[in-house]
Design a protein that fits this description.
The chain is an alpha+beta fold and 158 residues long. The chain is built from four helices and eight strands, in the order ββααβββαβαββ. It folds into two domains: 103 residues, Aminopeptidase, CATH 3.40.630; 52 residues. An eight-stranded mixed sheet has the order 1-2-3-4-5-6-8-7, sandwiched between helices. β3 and β4 form a beta hairpin. The longest helix has 13 residues. The N and C termini lie far apart (35 Å).
Length: 158
């Protein structure tokens, strides 16, 4: 799937392969203070019901999303964009890819740092709503996470 994000950069979104993991892990390490290990990515790629996508620009991976399928919902477990490609629509293209594969009517959930206002704003544009908090969720600094849900047809009383 090829998309044109909001700044004119052409992106291709496709499934992550094992050979992509060095680029994915490099972005993970540049993006997070407590990055996933290579083994965690390998485990998610081996799950047949998961959705693991990479966004490519000029042939290089510039972002990725790891989404696990659970009984009632898809859990967006990890999403990151290379710092040099942020604010260009890459994360939106990845979310579009997940929704295209899982379905517009599927339920989705994720956790996000309370301090990550740009990510929260993006998720809200996609119909996610805050549904709770996980105190001290992030091990690196003890920051809370906001639990967000996107559940089509669910009345939200927040």
């Amino acid at each position: 799937m090829s998309v044109k994000p909001n700044v004119g950069e052409e992106l291709t979104v496709r499934t992550i392969g094992f050979s992509d993991l060095p680029q994915v892990v490099a972005i993970e390490r540049r993006s997070f203070t407590s990055p996933w290990s290579l083994g965690m990515f390998v485990l998610e790629l081996t799950k047949p019901s998961g959705i693991c996508l990479a966004a490519l620009s000029a042939g290089a991976i510039v972002g990725y999303v790891i989404c696990a399928r659970y009984d009632e919902a898809y859990h967006v477990m990890d999403i990151a964009v290379d710092p040099d490609h942020r604010r260009r629509g890459v994360a939106a293209a990845l979310l579009d890819g997940v929704i295209a594969r899982a379905g517009e009517d599927a339920n989705y959930t994720l956790e996000v740092r309370v301090s990550n206002a740009p990510a929260i704003a993006l998720y809200e544009r996609y119909g996610f709503h805050a549904a709770g908090r996980r105190p001290r969720y992030y091990a690196d600094n003890g920051e809370d996470a906001i639990i967000m849900w996107r559940a089509i047809g669910t009345p939200w009383e927040l």
